[in-house]
Amino acid sequence: MRPRGAGESALLLLDAVEVLKAEGIKYAVVGAVAASVHGAVRASLDADVLIAAAEQQVTSLHKAFSNAGFQSVVSRGDPGDQIPAVIRLSDAFGNRVDVLVGLRGLDPEAFARTIEIPFHGSTLEFIGREDFIAMKVFAGGPIDLVDAERAIAANPASLDLELVGRLAARFGKGASASLKSILSADLGAGYDATDDL
C-alpha cells in the first residue's frame, strides 16, 4: 500500500481505486478531494469515493478490501437513508477513505461524466462539475454550499445551466431552491432566478 505515514488519505484512495477497478466497479472521487479539483480547496484528513454498486455487492467488496490489506468496516443505512451503505477503509497510520455505496437521487449517467485527472503517477476519475454542484446543494450544509458557490465561481461561463438544474431537481425542491439562490448571487444580472431549471 502507498501510504507511509499519517495525512496520506489521498494515497490510500489510490489503493482503494485499484481494488474497485479489479472488481469492475465504476467510481467517482467526491468530497473534499473533488472540491479541490472544482475550485474549493480545503483541508481534509479523509477521502471519499462514490461507487455504482448494488447493496448486494457490499459484502464481496468488503472482503476484497480486507484481502488487499485495508482495515474495512461496513456501515449500512436505514431504508430511507440517501446513502444505502458506506465501506469505511483505513490503514495503520489512521488514513481514511469512505466508499459510498450509491446515492439516491444521483443521475446514473454521473459516472459517464467523470473527469480523468493524473494523480501521483496514476489517474483518478473525479465527479463532474455539474454533478458535484448538484450533490453539494443537496447536502446543504454551510461548507457544502460554499463548495458549490466556489465551483460555480471558478468558471461561470462554462457551467451547463440546464444540466446542473436537472441534476439538482433529481434531489428535490430544496436542492433546486439552493441552486437557484447560489446562481442568482454568482451570476447576478446574467441569470434569472425565476427560470425553471
Descriptive account of the structure:
The protein has 197 residues and is an alpha+beta fold. It has two domains: 127 residues, Beta Polymerase, domain 2 (2-Layer Sandwich), CATH 3.30.460.40; 69 residues, no CATH class. Helix content is 40%, strand content 20%. It contains seven helices and seven strands, in the order αβαβαβββββαααα. The protein has a five-stranded mixed sheet. A two-stranded antiparallel sheet has the order 6-7. A hairpin with a 2-residue loop joins strand 6 and strand 7. About 3% of the residues have low confidence.
In short:
The protein has helices at residues 9-22, 31-37, 58-67, 129-139, 142-153, 161-170, 173-187, and strands at residues 26-30, 46-52, 71-76, 85-90, 96-101, 115-119, 122-126. It is an alpha+beta fold.
Topology (elements, then pairings):
Elements: H1 9-22, E1 26-30, H2 31-37, E2 46-52, H3 58-67, E3 71-76, E4 85-90, E5 96-101, E6 115-119, E7 122-126, H4 129-139, H5 142-153, H6 161-170, H7 173-187
Helix pairs in contact: 4-5, 4-6, 4-7, 5-7, 6-7
| Radius of gyration, CA atoms, in whole angstroms | 17 Å
CATH class of the largest domain: Alpha Beta
DSSP strand count: 7
Total individual domains:
2
The dominant shape is globular
> Given the structure, what is the number of helices?
7
Strand order across the largest sheet? 1-2-5-4-3
Task: Please provide the ordered H/E string of secondary-structure elements.
Answer: HEHEHEEEEEHHHH
CATH architecture term of the largest domain: 2-Layer Sandwich
Largest beta-sheet details: 5 strands, mixed
